[in-house]
Specification:
heterodimer, A: 80 residues, alpha+beta, Mth169, Chain: A, elongated, B: 222 residues, Rossmann fold, nine-stranded mixed β-sheet, 11 strands
Chain lengths: 80, 222
């Protein structure tokens, strides 16, 4: 089962990369863009057909390694 | 004094660090990251560099190197640990120090001499300094933007764990990377685990710009 872990900096944490992309988009003429946050997506292939088990495992992986809870939030998305 | 300098794949300040400690009269040797035990060291140093290519987050993978388990045990028993730059990031990821590092506010890799102010000297590392002393030590990092939640930060101030802040040559706060309260260096609650982004091992020769690093590292000799 393929699972995606989407990781973003928490709301209060300044995202310098997002800010740089926002400035670039604005300077390209996309004036309607008001905010950009850059995160990362980690795709994991877990050897199970049980959706709940896959989510549970992915959550454990995110807590222990993939995300840093001091600065980051994550969401888990089942791909297939 | 015996100093162990830990080498991870991607560490690149290991030789400078070993040389710096030998210069102040310590015996220093390298510890390869796959070792599982620590010999009798008076200080274990995690030097700067790019352990595991900074993959995922700086220091995130190095945390799982076999030697880290031994270092955790060593620190728990009161052993002295110093993390410089990437070594500081590894200590944060290993939860041996509070907080986390994010990308520099300006996105650039900053490499230059920077002034620092001594905020607390009630610890082994900075015992040779007075509070308010201004020193000049090189920084070289892309992820030195220190973040920590407010409650923890308050506890750190109360307990004398905020050790160094970035400033200008007159001691006025000057923040190169967006770090909360311009913090450049901290320690743990028990004051035996230290982390800083600046590189004291690069400030050991007058010819190379300054010798403020000597006084810092010598704190561990006493």
């Amino acid at each position: 089962m393929k699972v995606a872990v989407n990781i973003h900096l928490k709301k209060g944490v300044l995202d310098p990369q997002g800010k740089a992309v926002l400035n670039a988009l604005n300077s390209l003429g996309f004036d309607e863009v008001k905010d950009v946050r850059v995160g990362k997506q980690i795709l994991i292939d877990i050897d199970t057909n049980n959706k709940e088990e896959a989510i549970k495992k992915a959550k454990k992986m995110a807590d222990e390694l993939l995300a840093n809870p001091v600065i980051e939030n994550y969401e888990i998305e089942v791909k297939e | 004094m015996r100093v162990g300098v830990v080498v991870f794949p991607g560490t690149n300040c290991d030789r400078d660090t070993k040389w710096a400690f030998e210069k102040i009269g310590a015996k220093a040797d390298f510890i390869w990251h796959s070792e599982k035990e620590l010999k009798n060291y008076d200080l274990v140093v995690l030097p700067g560099g790019f352990s595991y290519g900074d993959y995922l987050r700086s220091g995130a993978i190095a945390r799982f190197s076999p030697i880290m388990e031994a270092i955790r045990e060593y620190a728990k028993k009161g052993g002295y640990v110093l993390g410089i730059c990437n070594g500081f990031q590894i200590l944060l990821e290993s939860h041996l120090l509070p907080g986390a590092m994010t990308r520099n506010e300006g996105l650039h890799f900053i490499s230059k001499f920077h002034h620092l102010k001594v905020i607390d000297n009630n610890n082994k590392f900075l015992q040779n300094f007075n509070i308010g002393d201004i020193i000049n030590i090189p920084i070289a990092h892309a992820e030195g933007n220190y973040k920590v939640d407010e409650d923890t930060l308050k506890r750190m101030y109360d307990n004398g764990q905020v050790l160094l802040k970035y400033c200008d040559k007159n001691g006025e706060e000057l923040n190169p990377n967006g770090s909360i309260d311009s913090i450049a260096g901290i320690c743990n609650e028990n004051k035996n685990v230290f982390g800083l982004m600046p590189h004291p091992e690069r400030a050991m020769e007058e010819m190379l710009g300054g010798i403020d690093g000597i006084k810092m590292l010598e704190g561990f000799l006493k």
